[in-house]
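Supplementary Methods, section 5.1.

A reviewer requested that the exact input to the structure prediction be made available. We therefore reproduce it here, unchanged from the version used in the analyses.
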Amino acid sequence: MAAAESKVMSLKLLIDTKGKRVLYAEAGKDFVDFLFQSLSLPVGTVVSLPKPQVNAGSLANLYDSMKNLNESYLLKSKQTKDPLLKPVLHSLSASQGFNPLLPTNNAPAATKCYACTYCRQQASLEPNATCTRCNYKMGQVLSFVGVAVSEEVGFVKDMVPYMVMDDLAVTPLSTMSSFALLHKLDVKDMSVVEEKVVNFGKDEAVKLLSASLYTNNVLTDVFLNCTSSNSKKRACKRET
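The structure derived from this sequence is encoded token-by-token as follows.
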């Protein structure tokens, strides 16, 4: 059977052509979900350590974005941020539905409960356990009722576009927030600012996760093929 085709997302970049930097990306739910999914990796535990003990680069901004995001933007099934901010260390595999490019929240397998086949007064999570009341086996499968299985996927609502800054800080996008960012970044000449729509696939995902560990200019490094340094100078390679 052929492997499933990788999903490719679309991002709209706002680029400072003079400064050779990505100001921010206008992104949808899928890309923001991908970013927040990275916090469920063990990296989330590293980022949550006191700042003097760890240099987490842009991942620290991503962590703070989820921490500060108003809960009104979260899906009802994700009203707790603990799985991301305080992740449990466990292995993630394709068999568990983990996709590093398109994160999904697969509903966990339903827990089965077994009742005594004779007295039905006791139950166990283990099949064929012995009833302590009558010594019969727990072989009667019980069904749980009244628990709705959420069909929501991801972490954030698909109600507004989101602004992802060069350092991966994420906020809901609005006209006011975009103008405020341009002012903060000291962009005065709008003639040097251009929009560019780019694809974001598996290759870009790997580059982004890698760049997030060593730079605060993640989007610039990934999409403008630039390398940044502590002197804030950027060397951009020409695209072939």
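The mean pLDDT is 77. These observations are discussed further in the main text.
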